[in-house]
Amino acid sequence: MVTNFTARAKNRRSLAQKERWKYGEKLQAADSAWAEQALRIQDGRQDSLWQTLKERGYIHQVAGDEKELERTMIEKRIGVYAGIDPTGPSMHVGHLLPFMVLLWFYIHGYRAVSLLGGSTSRIGDPSGRADAREEQHSSVRKANMASMHLQITKIWENMEMHARERHGYKREAVWKRALVNNNKWWNKLPVMEFMHYAGSLARVGPLLSRDTAKRKLQGDAGMSFAELGYPIMQGWDWWELFKQQDVQVQIGGADQFGNLVAGLEVVNSIIPKVIDAKIEPEKFDKNSTRFGVTVPLLTTSSGEKIGKSAGNAIWLDHDMTPPFELYQYFLKLSDSDAIRFLKLFTLIPLERIETIAEDHQKHPEKRLAHHQLAFEVLAMVHGAPCATQVAQEHNALFGQKTRFPMPPKDMIGTQYPGDLNVKTNPNATPVNAQSLWSYHASLPRSLVRDQTPARILFHAGLVGSRSEGQRLITAKGAYYGGETGMEKMSASEQNEMPDELKFVVIKNPDVEFSEKMIIGNDTMILRTGRTKVKIIKILEDDEFDRRGLTAPGWDDFKSMRG
Ligand SMILES: N[C@@H](Cc1ccc(O)cc1)C(=O)O
């Protein structure tokens, strides 16, 4: 018995060791492949990724020496990051551009880090804005943060799937991506450490001479200390990512150039100071250089900012902008915009885009380029099945004339049906908010107040019945988003809590416990299993009815109440 057991354990150990060796071998192979690729690029046999990015129109400005950046990218699998502040519940089309650049880096073997600015969003980036952002209530902020976190996770999954299935990129062990929230360090960074390492070296002069600061200082409201310091905060983020993960490049929108330059200075000045003080283990490469890269500010040929249609934002959340509308947005672009955006918002190789453009010229009324563009973007944002279905719906509605073109056979993976021109099944459920998994829901207050957690899970649509909810809670498989220790605080103290979103097991089946799950007065974040999350807005009953909403069990509840 005992020998048997130790033999098995030994066996397991050696298996694990073999796995490690295999992984090590893979990394070694990746290293030599990288070196060979560098040779091919230097001999002119292959384009560098930097050249590709430039040709496709992604590069607006570079903070730092461009030649050195290109060289560094050839030599080394550097880390790259782009950040976004969750000031709203969803990204819009314009936000996609920096993420497209991250995607290109990622599928070419570089480390891609997406940063969610939980802390920076509390200050609000003043870049390019005249007004100060209004401080949001903590429940709104948390809901936005959770919502964007889920959205970015989902979009990355879709983007990766899309790159592999449709564009033939092969996943390698060296492909690395991460999503980090800057709350992770801001929630525990002592003010003194920040002031000492970043604050004492940052110069106020350059910060004050930026256009944003000048404009603000002329206005009545002036500029707050926090807003002035925002670029230093963003710079500190870079420092954290640099020292933790060797992130040498930051990508941002056209309005981020000033922040990138400020960030470079922050990191460059902290490094020698930290080395002097010998407090940081010097894990980072002292001799490496950092670079900032901005993408262009895009406007359509009619002069609108990309992702705005008649002044309204086009959102990536399918509740806020239904997928069909998102598809339509791309169909309505001018011909030249459609071609330009194919280079920016898809992974289609440039040579193929040229062919598409030629075909488009021959039959402009078919809007071939537009359909390709719309389909590709939808596949990355909402997934291939959704993109396919929307394309089919469009065909069914508008018929032959604007049919979605069949993708060439070699571009089709298992997620993609071979013939997208198949007749739409008239009984198919249309792609709407309901048929896609949605992480937003509203509930009337009566379905939350004095209800057990099991019932709330049911009303929120996370489980099929109350008893299923009860079983899940007993099995510790249901969670609520909140903060540990929160329950001991008064409401006003809660607002001042740092808001790193944590999920806590729903461990008590009683009504009183439900109260703890409410953030602020009107928000609840629930999770079942690993990934199913609902961000719930609690409305007063009459408001809920007035909006024509419904929820599982609501009709029953009302008829019982009489
Ligand atoms: N300031 C950026 C978002 C951002 C936040 C934190 C960062 O570290 C990087 C970027 C913007 O408003 O677009």
Provide the fold topology.
Layout lengths: L1 H41 L6 H8 L4 E3 L2 H10 L3 E6 L11 H12 L3 E6 L3 H4 L14 H28 L10 E6 L1 H4 L4 H9 L4 H5 L2 H8 L6 H21 L1 E6 L4 H21 L13 E4 L13 E2 L2 E2 L9 H9 L3 H11 L4 H13 L5 H15 L1 H15 L41 E5 L8 H7 L6 H9 L3 E5 L8 H6 L5 E4 L5 H6 L1 E2 L3 E6 L3 E8 L1 H6 L7 H8 L1
Helix pairs in contact: 6-16, 11-12, 13-16, 14-16, 16-17, 18-19
Bound molecules: tyrosine.
3D architecture notes:
The longest helix has 41 residues, at 2-42. This protein has 23 helices and 14 strands. The chain starts with a helix and ends with a helix. The chain is of the alpha/beta class and 562 residues long. Mean pLDDT is 87; it is low at 407-415, 418-426 and 484-499. The strands form 3 sheets. A 6-stranded mixed beta sheet has the order 1-6-5-2-3-4, sandwiched between helices. Strands 9, 10, 11, 12, 13 and 14 form a 6-stranded mixed beta sheet that branches. The chain is globular. It has helices at 2-42, 49-56, 66-75, 96-107, 120-123, 138-165, 183-186, 191-199, 204-208, 211-218, 225-245, 257-277, 323-331, 335-345, 350-362, 368-382, 384-398, 453-459, 466-474, 491-496, 511-516, 541-546, 554-561, and strands at 61-63, 79-84, 111-116, 176-181, 247-252, 291-294, 308-309, 312-313, 440-444, 478-482, 502-505, 518-519, 523-528, 532-539. Helix content is 49%, strand content 12%. It has 3 domains: 44-294, 3-Layer(aba) Sandwich (Rossmann fold); 308-411, Tyrosyl-Transfer RNA Synthetase, CATH 1.10.240.10; 440-561, Roll (Structural Genomics Hypothetical 15.5 Kd Protein In mrcA-pckA Intergenic Region, Chain A), CATH 3.10.290.10. Residues 83-85, 115, 117, 120, 125, 182, 234, 237, 253, 256, 259 line the site of tyrosine. Keywords: Aminoacyl-tRNA synthetase, ATP-binding, Ligase, Nucleotide-binding, Protein biosynthesis. InterPro entries: aa-tRNA-synth_I_CS, aa-tRNA-synth_Ic, Rossmann-like_a/b/a_fold, S4_RNA-bd_sf, Tyr-tRNA-ligase, Tyr-tRNA-ligase_bac-type, TyrRSs_C. It comes from Gomphillus americanus. It catalyses: tRNA(Tyr) + L-tyrosine + ATP = L-tyrosyl-tRNA(Tyr) + AMP + diphosphate + H(+). One of its GO terms (molecular function) is RNA binding.
